[in-house]
Design brief:
Structural class: alpha/beta
Number of strands: 6
Radius of gyration: 28 Å
Order of helices and strands: HHEEHEHEEEH
Largest sheet: 6 strands, mixed
Strand content: 5-15%
Low-confidence stretches: 1-59
Number of domains: 2
Mean pLDDT: 82
Oligomer: single chain
Helix content: 25-40%
Strand order of the largest sheet: 1-6-5-3-4-2
Number of helices: 5
Length: 225
């Protein structure tokens, strides 16, 4: 501002004119009907939102690859199913609780489990399901194979794990016989042979989609952790 120059006096603020209230010319009956319409509209939008949320959960936590995984598994001759989520707490304090866990699928895809998970890795010995279910809660994918699965398929499974082992657990499960099971949180598939495309799409769709995925970052799901 140049020296000795007086600042201009700002003009007085303009008065804000409040909007005039509109006269209510509707009868009580018309008002009641209008309120009902508004309430129905709100309720309807809530139902639509709920349907969208449920659909996202069913399709793997919002993953756009869930449908592709289901199609690839079907094309490979596998079975695929989404199971309702079971209560996951409190943790069991023993590996042999009485009564034993009552899961809604075999192998389990959700439900109560032991307080410690299986360290991520590729195992040659069966791992307790009560522990591996905990791995699913962290966002992992588990591949388990029966005692009649060919050595060739087992080697392909091992190679598959080796190529991208983060949040991946592999172990034998003799009761599966000639079947290979893939599980993620609430997601289940069963195949009679290894299929690279189907297994890859299952992993892509459902890995890192679980109740505690945000708690355990990918760096915490590496082999040996």
């Amino acid at each position: 501002m140049p020296p000795n120059k007086k600042p201009k006096t700002p003009p007085p603020p303009r008065r804000v004119q409040a909007p005039q209230a509109r006269a209510n010319t509707r009868s009580p009956g018309e008002l009641e009907a209008r309120h009902r319409v508004i309430l129905y509209a709100i309720a309807g939008s809530g139902v639509v939102a709920l349907v969208v949320v449920v659909a996202l959960v069913v399709l793997g936590g919002g993953s756009g690859n869930a449908k592709a995984a289901a199609n690839a598994l079907t094309a490979a001759g596998c079975q695929y199913k989404h199971y309702p989520e079971q209560p996951r707490s409190p943790h069991y304090q023993t590996l042999n609780p009485s009564p034993p866990p009552s899961w809604n699928s075999f192998p389990p895809t959700s439900g109560r489990h032991y307080g410690q998970w299986v360290l991520w890795g590729d195992y040659t010995q069966p791992q307790p399901l009560i522990k591996s279910t905990h791995n699913l809660e962290h966002g992992g994918v588990i591949i388990q194979y029966g005692n009649k699965v060919s050595k060739s398929d087992i080697q392909k499974i091992n190679d598959f794990w080796q190529s991208d082992p983060n949040a991946m657990l592999v172990a034998p499960l003799p009761k599966l016989g000639n079947k290979i099971a893939l599980t993620a949180w609430t997601q289940w598939a069963e195949c009679t042979h290894f299929n690279q495309t189907a297994f890859s799409k299952f992993k892509s769709a459902f890995r890192y989609h679980a109740p505690e995925s945000s708690v355990f970052p990918k760096s915490a799901l590496e082999p040996g952790k």
